[in-house]
Structures are given as C-alpha cells and as structure tokens.
Amino acid sequence: MKIIGHRGARGLAPENTIASLKKALELGVDRIEFDVRVTIDHIPVIFHDETLIDHSGDKLPLNRTTYQELKNHKPGLASLQEVLDFIKGRVPLYIEVKMGSDCGPIVRELKKYQGDYWLGSKSQRTLLELHRQLPKVPKVVIESWSGVRARYRAKQLDTRILSMYQRFLWSGFIVAVHRGGYELYAYTINDPRKARRWAKCGLAGVVTDYPDRFVSRRKA
Rounded to two decimals, what is the model's pTM? Predict the structure, then answer.
C-alpha cells in the first residue's frame, strides 16, 4: 500500500509549505501531494483555498492578487518553482491543480521538471486541458463520491488512477474497482487500521495528513 503525504504532511507542519513537504520527505512517503493555484501575474503557487486570509482578516483572492502581494501577507507561501527546486526528483509528486486555475503557467514550469509526478484535479475540464498539453504525464481523477462518474472521467483521459473521498468508499466497492483494473487511492485517511483493512480489498494507497502513523508501522 502506497503512502501519500497530504499537502506535504499537514497534520505535522503547516500545509502546502516547504516545511510540510520536508517533513513528508523525511518520513519516507511514497509520494507527496500538494495543491496548485495561479496568481494574477501568472505565478503558480502552492495553496489550497481560492482566497488567502491573513492574520488580520484581510482576504486576497489568489487569482486577483500578485505573487508579491500574497507573499507580503503570507511569507511562507511557496511558488511551484520553489517546490520543484526543493524536491529535485527525490520523491514522486502528486500535484492537484485546483478548479479554475490557468493551466498554461503550470505546464510551463512542469515542462522543465525532470522528476516523476502525477497531475490530478476534481475538474474534468482542467484535467482534459492538462492532458492535451502534457499527454504523457499520468492523470489522477479526483472524485468525491460517484464511482460511475470517476470511471467515465478516467476513460476520457485514458487513465486508470482514481482518488476518491474515503467516506463514500466501502470494501465491496474497492474490490470491484480493483478487479476492474483501476488503481484506487483514498483521501483523507488517518487511521492505519482502516487502511490495512481496505488494502486487503485492493486499495492501492492512501492520502494522509499523518504519514508518520503509516510509515512507522510499515518499518516496524
């Protein structure tokens, strides 16, 4: 079973930061997941939400704010370029491109990167555009609850990698998806016992906030 650090290791360090990615790397995860959005001046940054809310309560929509303005309010904000330079191919990546993001600047950065990575999104439009521009990069269909829709989307993208919300998964479904030839990952799982139970049904891996809980058991 593969262990994927969620937004780095968000249960152990501030999410989507170099510190969080470093923690996941130190723990020896199989892959690191993080989110990407694009600023108004076309800089891909590592951030989950549509809006940055700073300590004083100021709200800055990422797609209407410059990178430097965002950095002034959140000094720890990292660009995609900074993250790729930090990782340097030491661990495979799982990059979730958030809905509505401009794919162009993201693709330009990734074309220069030599490491192993996946591209995922909840938006089919986004994934199709990424697939058009980077057809050889593996795509991950991220789907909250519908197995039917997940497999339909996967067929459009010629991929067998699915990532689904754990609250809508059950053992019988996991068995069926595995037998259908899909590689299924569950997010976000922080309970190793549930993960081990589902691994016996064919779950390929988990996206977790606490990779230490899984990696330590695997090494024991």
Answer: 0.96
